[in-house]
Amino acid sequence: MRHHAVAATLLTATLLVTGCTAENSAENTAENTAEQTTQTTQEDTTRLLTDIDGTDVRVPKQVTRLADTWDVNNQFVLMLGGGDTLVATTEEAKRLPWLTKIYPHVTELPTPASGTRLNVEELKEINPEMLLTSSKEQVEAARAQGIPAARVDFDDFEQLMKSVRITANALGTEEADQKATEYVTYMERNLKMVADRLGGMPGEKKPKVLHIVGGEDVTQADGPDSLVGEWIAATGARNVIEEVVDVTTVTPQDIVDAAPDFIIVGGMEAQLGVDKLVNDPALANVPAVKQGNVVKNPVGTSNWGRYSAEEALQLLWAAKLFHPEKFEDVDLVAETQQFYSTFYGYELSTEDAQRILDGEGPAA
């Protein structure tokens, strides 16, 4: 009897263990299946995007609601065919006359950011699928709220083209990818053309250039450690600012001592700066002033000389300004018209193109 009782007890225990094991196995299988399903679903609907810092960000396969809080990058989005995806912009973008003429919808968009500050509550109400910005602080704030965020930024030609590629990847469309490739090809063509024509030029033949940031304050000048410094060097000229800086302060005496052959004033208020400089008695004998070479930098959907897709046109404009004899065949009006037609789908009149080259906004 005892043997039968022991056997029965062992059989019961075995059944219990087997049952528990089967139950646990079923639970584990269900959990693993759920995890795999979630992962598969996520992989089916999202993708990884690598931003300018090398950070991987998981975003929807095709973004239809994009917040872009870097005014310059709004231009890239438009260029890549993503204008209809924008759901947030910046106040700075709304103040760019040519951008608002070509893409008037930008004036109706909310602006949840100012400087490096991001209003996350407002951004959440806008409900974007992702954020593009140049601000690390904004990226961190958005990610903390579960909003995918990628950083774009550039201070040289290579990073500019990379930021265009990142923006195209963010949009996730074939059109964006094709336009990005077309743009990079055009930029590289212009870089090569300028380099081929100006290669081997001795230093003494390179004009000295001073680039003023904006007409509102003619004491702020761009140094060589900037995109401005890069295109000055690329177009066969010398930046009179020798210290390795982005922006620095200059006095009238500094300008006299530097004796630039050209003074270029950037921004939408460039005419104010030109007037101040040419009417300053202290600068009367500066070569640029004496020779009538105090000029406004072209301004299109963004400022050509600073952060702009139209940097590709800036190369041609500056090269022809400094070395007209080597670029007689370059028709800047036609190049500008072709660029706007190709990349913005907008047909500029001859007058429009000339106004952009002259640093002026659209005609009233």
Q: Which regions contain 5 or more consecutive residues with pLDDT less than 50? A: 1-18
Principal-axes shape call: globular
Mind summarizing the main beta sheet? 6 strands, mixed
Structural class: alpha/beta
Taking all Cα atoms into account, the compactness measure Rg is: 29 Å
Task: Note the run of SSEs as H and E.
Answer: HEEEHEHHEEHEHEHHEEHEEHEHHEHHH
Mean pLDDT over the full residue set: 91
Terminal CA distance reads 110 Å
Work out the strand percent: 5-15%
Signal peptide: 1-22
Protein name: ABC transporter substrate-binding protein
Keywords: Signal
Family: Belongs to the bacterial solute-binding protein 8 family.
Please describe what this structure looks like:
By secondary structure, this protein is an alpha/beta fold. Helix 7 packs antiparallel against helix 8 and helix 8 runs parallel beside helix 13. Mean pLDDT is 91; it is low at 1-18. It is 49% helix and 14% strand. The chain is globular and about 65 Å long. It has 15 helices and 14 strands. Strands 9, 10, 11, 12, 13 and 14 form a six-stranded mixed beta sheet that branches. InterPro entries: ABC_Transporter_SBP (IPR050902), ABC_transptr_periplasmic_BD (IPR002491).
How would you summarize this macromolecular structure in one to three sentences?
Belongs to the bacterial solute-binding protein 8 family. This protein is an alpha/beta fold and 364 residues long.
Short descriptors:
single chain; alpha/beta; four-stranded parallel β-sheet; 14 strands
